[in-house]
UniProtKB/TrEMBL annotation, chains A, B:
The keyword Nuclease does not apply. It comes from the Bacteria. The lineage of its organism: Bacteria, Pseudomonadati, Pseudomonadota, Alphaproteobacteria, Hyphomicrobiales. Keywords: ATP-binding, Kinase, Nucleotide-binding, Transferase. The keyword Transferase applies. It is an enzyme of class 2 (transferase). This is Dihydroxyacetone kinase. GO terms for biological process: glycerol catabolic process. Residues 365-567 form the DhaL domain. GO terms for molecular function: ATP binding; glycerone kinase activity. It comes from Gellertiella hungarica. Gene3D superfamilies: 1.25.40.340, Dihydroxyacetone kinase, domain 1 (3.40.50.10440), Dihydroxyacetone kinase, domain 2 (3.30.1180.20). One of its GO terms (cellular component) is cytosol. Its EC number is 2.7.1.29.
């Protein structure tokens, strides 16, 4: 049970602020993340890591000498926005380029990937390493489909040590990929976790039983069994990992990770058995760690990570570091970084909107009005969308959509009041949505709205042909960014028939009202039809299928929004 | 739920072994504890801390430069035995004397106190500081009745810094007492904890509610309320502590402690609110810490500790230290201590028993037979005694008695087989019981049996008068050591009438069988009669009265044992 919070939606941001207040000797707060507060040499490669919150010490606790330079924090179990990633990277960059490290989840891949593109366009050299250590999430033959769990810390430690040693970006990227290919993790869960503000746990494990291979957001495991004595649990974990032992490896790094409610003394008990097993297999364990490294709120369970060492990896694994969560050897003396300006505040603001002609300003008011209707709808449907999403995902879709639309409404109003035109107002709303909603759906709605805006003008109200073209452009952009196709159980399943019907019926009738209304109806049916289908895109989505009987929340919310907008058309 | 273990009774010892295996750079395992593995100057005051297990990082995680020199670990929620405390102190002593630090619980006061006496008899200078920081456990006017909770770490940190700075024992003791008098803590619990191997939690807190002032073993709180938002919870905690703010204090050290299942991010959220409150009260917070410092297995909840600083305390609070759980500033470089002999094995063994005459050897066999019956009884009644104890104490009485009697049986058999006489065999059993059972009852039964043995001879079987005198001597010793009187709801309540009846009826009838049987019956009635009474001696006992309707487990087990022994008399 997550118990201590004020407004649940502020949980992640407030926790980050508290962390930064306590650990000022390591970090300085920036918006949506932290950067080192200690002096970093110019030209050093910056290792920037991140992901959703709720996993402390992942990721802010990894920042310090010999490990990460900065961490980006999304909302609880939700990817940080593209803008957040880019912002933290800019604060951390010292001219040596950036290695972006994060666990392999669709939302993070999307947001970090788009941010990398933006930063490259600004002239920064940015490389990406997704961590894929969870052996239970996909077979050995398709490592790129594996999730990233506690191996995150191992891979980041290796990259951080290489960067601290002064290696160039090419070398840091190479060794980080190498470490990822030799890092394997398997976990078990004894009990679920509860999101701040939620009344029920995200999932439960029956008392006296355990889920094997469960992910860190409650993704289903590969098997369920009786909870085992420590000796048998140690055997189960080590045997699964030893299946992937590369030939000739005799030395391993090890990380025994508690997920939250499983305590240190339990981990120490388990470690005695794991150490026996590894030794019996002829493996020498180098600098093992047991503790909380990647948690899942108050989830009960643990995972074992092994790093198959070679000479290069061993020297980086044992290299000194000094962070809130991990300390090794004699870390070089840290000097406080110069400057202490508060970098966490809101930036920019309405950087002045050009005043649009009368028609464009009427269009802007219409956009703002539309977002008002959308925000009201999504506030009302927040709990329902959350429940639908919880069947197959991590239950945060309702929260993300509510937050995104509220932010978009604010931005659209501000733009409209400042005299901006239709397209500019929609673009401002799109950026606010992407930045504030977080997660996969936040990123996708940002992309969707931005592409829509590109088909509109600042000189006219949104009408007929431009709207139909905008919808088509938005669909294309979403499919490009998300990589999903019809049948993958995402909002695309509802969006494709919506645009097809809108296109066809507008061509036939010339009435946007009629075309849009029919299209929205078809989208609603398509959303319902996502229920009995198979895997879909999304952060923390199951690989096995849990969502039978439940439609996809992203498709449902898209159809709802289409219906509400249709009702406003005249 | 405590989930990972093999044999529950080995949980604490195995966890300690695993901890030492992982943290060899800080500690070396000794029997029942750890000592620093780094070099310590001759003549330095040794700060030795300890208490029950289940509270990691208390107490093994406190060992390292600038903090403790060694830690003694009892079983889960049970005081370490007198022998364990003495043993660890001997391993840590560097000629500068010893400061013994522990939380104020009856079992620890007893075991550490007796150990201190033993060590003083060996010529060591030993001082004791009980930590009494829990403001909810007794009024301000009787600080000596307050329990020690998370303030343990604060007081030990101050003492450790003074010792590391080279201060003599007098000065270290003085500043430790001063720190204790200025350290206050208040805690809340949202949910209970489960002992390894137990099927049900030790206590529960209703969902959505919280217990205010709950102790770290489930001792009842002072109030119950709705679980509060972070801002209100911060106000509740700080306001209670500010009631005890000494005049003129403007600077405080602070420790926000998670009890196990409450996560770091929740603590960080709460910290932002606490910091606001303290600042509003004109207090400057110095080097605050938030994390897990004194846990209670998987208990959900947290506590806030404040240290009212003066110049001396501030310099010690901020002094460098380097331990598994707490690191500050640039700790002096540690050098590995010389020698690496395994100090954790069994010591001594049967150091050779003098062969007793025939009658004494028959007496030894009789003693061994008696312990066989006692061990069988206590194994059978283990769960029942645990249940009775759980009503008012921490539920470990059955486990402790079973473990103690099993160890005593083994020692008695070994002595008897080696040809030892009656008294020597009983003394060997007494020592084994005290050393292995742990907790208050283990210490008391050790004292009881040792005093009994002193009235027996190695040349004769235990008979009539000697047994009656032995029982009286045992009772006197228990009352001296435990400080309890009739009516305090301890085993004394059954023991006093037992000895009185035994004495009187033996004088009247001359039959030990008759006298013992009648005395055992009276003891049984007296044990039952402990049910509706008020506070009693014992580790982790409630201050309020929870045990109405339940007899005292210590009195019950004493009466049971008396009955079983009576049945063996002829």
């Amino acid at each position: 049970m997550t118990t201590i919070f004020d407004a649940p939606e502020d949980f992640a941001a407030t926790a980050l602020r508290g962390f930064a207040a306590l650990y000022g000797r390591y970090v300085r707060l920036v918006r949506n993340g932290v950067v080192r507060s200690t002096r970093t040499p110019e030209g050093k490669v910056a290792v920037v890591v991140g992901g959703g919150s709720g996993h402390y010490p992942a990721f802010a606790g990894y920042v310090g000498l010999g490990l990460a330079d900065a961490a980006v924090a999304g909302d609880v179990f939700a990817s940080p926005s593209t803008a957040a990633v880019a912002r933290v990277c800019r604060a951390a960059h010292r001219g040596g380029g950036i290695l972006l490290g994060f666990g392999n989840y669709a939302g993070d891949v999307l947001n970090f990937g788009v941010a990398a593109d933006e930063l490259r366009a600004e002239g920064m050299d940015v490389r990406i390493v997704h961590v894929t250590d969870d052996v239970a999430s996909a077979p050995r033959e398709t490592p790129e489909k594996r999730r990233g769990i506690a191996g995150d810390l191992v891979v980041f430690k290796i990259a951080g040590a290489a960067a601290e040693a002064g290696h160039a970006l090419d070398a840091v990227e190479r060794v980080a990929r190498h470490a990822n290919s030799r890092t394997v993790t398997v976990g078990v869960a004894f009990g679920g976790c509860t999101l701040p503000g939620a009344r029920e746990p995200l999932f439960t494990v029956q008392k006296g039983r355990m889920a094997v291979g469960l992910g860190i957001h409650g993704e289903p495991g590969v098997a369920e069994s009786e909870a085992l004595p420590a000796a048998d649990l140690a055997r189960l974990l080590t045997d699964r990992l030893l299946e992937e032992r590369p030939a000739g490896v005799t030395r391993v790094g090890a990380l025994l990770n508690g997920l939250g409610a499983t305590k240190y003394e339990e981990l120490f008990v388990l470690w005695t058995r794991i150490a026996e097993r590894l030794s019996a297999e002829g493996l020498t364990v180098v600098a093992p760690e047991a503790g909380e490294f990647v948690t899942s709120l108050d989830m009960s369970g643990c995972s074992l990570t092994l790093l198959w060492l070679d000479e290069e990896l061993e020297s980086l694994w044992t290299a000194p570091c000094d962070t809130p969560v991990l300390r090794r050897g004699a870390a070089p003396q840290a000097l406080e970084a110069p400057g202490s300006e508060d970098m966490s505040g809101e930036e920019g603001g309405n950087a002045g909107f050009a005043r649009a002609p009368e028609a464009g300003r009427r269009g802007a008011a219409c956009i703002a009005g539309t977002f008002e209707a959308m925000a009201a709808l999504l506030r009302e449907k927040e709990a329902e969308l959350g429940r639908i999403d919880a069947q197959a995902g991590d239950g945060d879709h309702g929260q993300g959509m509510a937050r995104g639309s509220a932010a978009a409404l604010l931005a659209a109003r501000t733009a409209a009041e400042a005299g901006a035109g239709t397209a500019t107002t929609l673009r401002a709303a799109a950026e606010a949505w992407a930045d504030r909603a977080g997660g996969t759906s936040g990123a996708l709605w940002g992309v969707l709205l931005k592409a829509f805006a590109a088909e509109l003008s600042d000189d006219a109200e949104p009408a007929g042909e431009a709207v139909v073209k905008g919808a088509r452009a938005a669909l294309d952009a979403v499919m490009r960014a998300g990589g999903a196709k019809v049948g993958d159980k995402t909002l695309v399943d509802a969006f494709v028939p919506f645009v097809d019907v809108l296109d066809a019926r507008f061509a036939a009738t010339g009435s946007l009202k009629i075309a849009w209304t029919e299209a929205a109806e078809v989208a609603g049916q398509a959303a319902e039809a996502t229920a009995p289908l198979s895997p879909k895109l999304g952060r923390a989505r199951p690989l096995a299928e849990r969502s039978i009987g439940h439609p996809d929340a992203g498709a449902v919310s898209l159809a709802m929004i289409a219906t509400v907008i249709g009702a406003r058309l005249s």
